[in-house]
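== Sequence, structure tokens ==
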Amino acid sequence: MTMRQAQSYLQTYLRRHWANLQAAALGLAIGLTLFLGIRAISPHPGEACTQLGQIREEWEIGAPTQQLMCVATLDGDLRYDHIIPPPPKKKHEQQY
């Protein structure tokens, strides 16, 4: 196959299948934009925060949300960190 034949074949292929390729490329672009956008606006552990005790949610695609709390470090900085939930209360085995 010569270079001209290959070029002609590629042009013909793209003309015939451009709609499918365009839809796939658009879908990938939208998915990537959503993924990066959600990561960009969601706080992550170790990022600076402004109000002590503020609770926000960390969003990750494909994972459940996790709550983050604004805590003070030993250096006096305010940073987001995962919330440590209190231990569950034991239910009474038998109630009279």
Residues 19 and 25 are 10 Å apart (CA to CA). DSSP finds one helix and three strands in the chain. The longest strand covers residues 63-72. Helices lie at 3-41.
